[in-house]
Amino acid sequence: MINVQADLAPSGVLRAAVNLGNPVLAQGTPEEPSGVTVDIAREIARRLEVPLELVCFDAARKSFEALTTGQADICFLAVEPARADQVAFTAPYVIIEGVFAVRRESGLTAVGDVDRDGVRIGVKRGSAYDLYLTRTLRHATVVRGDEGVDVFLAEGLEVAAGIRRPITRFVAENPGFRLIDERFMQIQQAVGTSKTRHPDTVAYLHALVEDLKTSGFVADSLLRSGQPDATVAPPA
Fold first, then answer.
1. Nearest to 55 by CA among 47, 67, 45
2. Would the pTM of this model clear 0.70, i.e. be above it?
3. How far apart (Å, rounded) are the C-alpha atoms in residues 87 and 193?
């Protein structure tokens, strides 16, 4: 039988890539990160009986790059076809909604209004919603920046895309803008590791994540980190 510990943490230390750019999943600083992804990483390391090293980034694309270039052993990313060629994913542990914001006077009122010629959508480069919109849009144009709202404001775009909580906070703090409340996507956040891992190692991670969901571990972690609106994914 495969030695999961040796396969998943060959250096003797489990290196986990954490994306501090997603405030639902991770908070704090690179020196003191917290949140559900950090809690899951610690639990995986505890069960494997190895030390944990948290490698923190400010964007999902950087976490992806860390895993695919061998700088990390596991990551926490949204399941997307553009990543699945290189990342072996568990089933999701959290589901987050992607939503749009527009200027208050905009004629765009529903998700179905957005994909039309002349509409430009600001996204965070390499995010799950960047990948999703790039894959699914037929008429609207994706404009990438360090943050979707920032490029939306800087370039006078028609739409900003992002995850629900930060986008909702943005429109609450800026009365000239409003939310299109209907979600345009469900972002399925999962644990990932390299496709080079043994299938038994991937199965071990999958079973572990299922246990953390059904035991209440994920729900408790979301509450402790101040994310009561995040949805625990259903059992796979």
1. 67
2. yes
3. 6
Please give the average per-residue pLDDT across 158-177, as a whole number.
Answer: 95
Cα→Cα distances 121→124, 151, 167, 233, Å: 10, 9, 14, 28
Q: Which residues are 97's β-sheet partners?
A: 186
Q: How many CB atoms are located within 10 Å of the residue 40 CB?
A: 24
Q: Is 137 left (phi over 0), alpha (psi -120 to 50) or beta?
A: beta
Give residues with Cβ within 8 angstroms of 172, minimum separation 6.
none
75-80 mean pLDDT: 94
- Taking Cα atoms as reference points, which of 127, 99, 106 lies closest to residue 22? 127
pLDDT one-digit tens code per residue, 82-139: 899 999 999 999 999 999 999 999 999 999 999 999 999 999 999 999 999 999 999 9
How far is the C-alpha of 132 from the C-alpha of 139, rounded, in Å?
14
Length of the chain: 236
Q: What is the DSSP letter of 23?
A: T
At residue 210, the pLDDT reads 98
CA distance linking residue 120 with residue 99, whole number of Å:
15
Mean pLDDT of 22-36: 95
